[in-house]
Amino acid sequence: ExxxxxxxxxxxxxxxxxxxPKLKTMEGxxxxxxxxxxxxxxxxxxxxxxVLPDGKYGAFEINDTDVFIVTSRAALNLAYQNxxxxxxxxxxxxxxxxxxxxxxxxxxxxxxxxxxxxxPMLTILTDKGTGIVxxxxxxxxxxxxxxxxxxxKPALRQKYGVKDEWVLPFKVVPIINIPEFGDKSAxxxxxxxxxxxxxxKEKLAEAKRMTYLKGFTDGTMIVGEFNGxxxxxxxxxxxxxxxxxxxxxxxxx
Length: 253
Ligand code: A2H
Description:
Elements: E1 7-15, E2 30-37, E3 48-51, E4 56-61, E5 66-70, H1 72-79, E6 92-97, H2 98-101, E7 105-107, E8 116-120, E9 133-135, H3 141-152, H4 154-159, H5 164-167, E10 176-177, H6 185-192, H7 201-218, E11 220-221, H8 231-245, E12 248-252
Parallel strand pairs: 2-5, 3-8
Antiparallel strand pairs: 1-2, 1-7, 1-12, 3-9, 4-5, 4-6, 7-8, 10-11
Helix pairs in contact: 3-6, 6-7
């Protein structure tokens, strides 16, 4: 962990009923996969959610109405940030593995896709954020390659019980223009660097370095309420909008 605390926006990705058998006892509650992001302005381009198949998660009571599915480590941090029904004490309704979450249909704020699915990503770290990641393949090289892997490898889909209709047809949603990279910066940089898979760590680090700063300094929104505004300006506005409407919360670690 870094020396400076990192502030994330937690996106509340709502589990759409009917719940599968494993989650059935929670039906009637507002259950969310809570994804940690540094890029709230990219939420228009969400195509799916990522979970770690072997990851350990739990369903934790955040207040009288909301339940967040996150790692227990994140639940403890949340409990010390006024995000637990019982102050400073996480209350876990059920333990879940990432495999239990694959295929859940979700409704996520700002996403142009009305329903998106939880899918497996093999490089998720369980000691960062909530262990849940929202996927924006237009602007995140990690997300683009993990989705590309699922699209290109039927055996990978089969291994994790991923239905074809959850990933095909794979459509990147353009949301931000970067003069140097166009409207799908992550896709372009992954192709330019000839990145082979989500496990190509060194090249992905380079791709992230190339797109992340450029997106912030040179990017312009091409969709949504702040269409035409620089990413730098739109970012805090979109973040505040999500926080005000209650579809996201702040989380630090
Ligand atoms: B970002 P940092 Cl469009 N394991 O959100 C792996 N990755 C994780 C994670 C975990 N446990 N928790 C969060 N993340 C991802 C959007 C995005 C992100 C875009 C472009 C770049 C980008 C959509 N995915 O991150 O190490 C989340 O993905 C580039 C680094 O704390 C989160 O923001 O800097 C980011 O990594 C946090 O990474």
